[in-house]
Amino acid sequence: MSDIPADPRPIVLTGDRPTGPLHLGHFCGSLRNRVTLQHGHDTFVPIADAQALTDNTDDPRRITRHVIDLALDDLAVGIDPSLTTICVQSALPALCELTQLFLNLVTVVRLERNPTIKEEIQARGFGRDIPAGFLCYPVAQAADSAAFRATLVPVGADQAPMIEQTHAIVRRLNRQVGHALLPEARASIPASGRLPGVDGRAKMSKSQGNALALSATEDEIRAAVRRMDTDPDHLRVGDPGRVEGNVVFTDPDAFDPDRDTIAELKARYRRGGLGDTVVKQRLETVLLDLLAPIRASRAAWAHRPDDVRDILRDGTRHARGVTQATLDTVKDALGLYRLAP
Fold this sequence. Notes:
The protein folds into two domains: about 220 residues, HUPs (Rossmann fold, 3-Layer(aba) Sandwich), CATH 3.40.50; about 80 residues, Tyrosyl-Transfer RNA Synthetase (Orthogonal Bundle), CATH 1.10.240. Helix content is about 55%, strand content about 5%. The protein has 14 helices and five strands. The strands form two sheets. The chain has a three-stranded parallel sheet. Helix 9 links the parallel strand 4 and strand 5. It is globular, with a radius of gyration of 22 Å. The two termini are about 20 Å apart.
């Protein structure tokens, strides 16, 4: 029995559920980060179709339809398949088996206390009719992280409790086998924080219907900016306005490279003399410039469907070998019976 050999480079793991197009919240919370991290790290991006089934069991074809769409979004923002392994979660059987092992290392009470799970249960209106798969998906996420031997996981701030859950499971396993068998992954959380939806009332989310897709057209971008709420007390241009919590300033904070201009606009808005229309025009320009090259790259990849499928096939084959090796090592450490191949 031996520990998994140390990888010479840090390992990054981060993925998304194929339940619809990726949006600005994903870009701000993780995508931008993972594009940077793929240089100098071994990076794995699983398309989490198995996890998506936990609350889409009534329409599994919806998940299937969006697998390629999600791969297109990843490629469009700059995920490079020569640097990053893009793979399909459901085609990695070692993840399911490792999840089963990990389920014995966590209690139902601990899962129900997870703040992210509690928030998502409320958002979906499950009440006490919580699908067991949904309640347990933090365990599956822990298995994903462990199976790839991840040391860094780019996530939004709302996913930090998931990383803590993973740590708890990995620590218990390591204590049980008596040595540091699996690494504890560190969360990489962007400084910009959670991006609000275009309605300004909740985080940007596909399920809430308040997201702006990375593939949005120019007309869709303009329409989204026009309907954004601003400070309800800023009735006239001369009135002082509130910047904090104002979505038309939150988005520029995340995406506008001209920090001096944004600081000046905020100061003018706070003291009065700046209309909402001017701020929205600035935001519209920033978003149009940000999303135009992403939309063009996505369209180019969409015209190469065979290449996209090859990327998924090759990435999944590589990921299958990595995750199976980890599972075998864990089973050996636990003393589980394994038939020789």
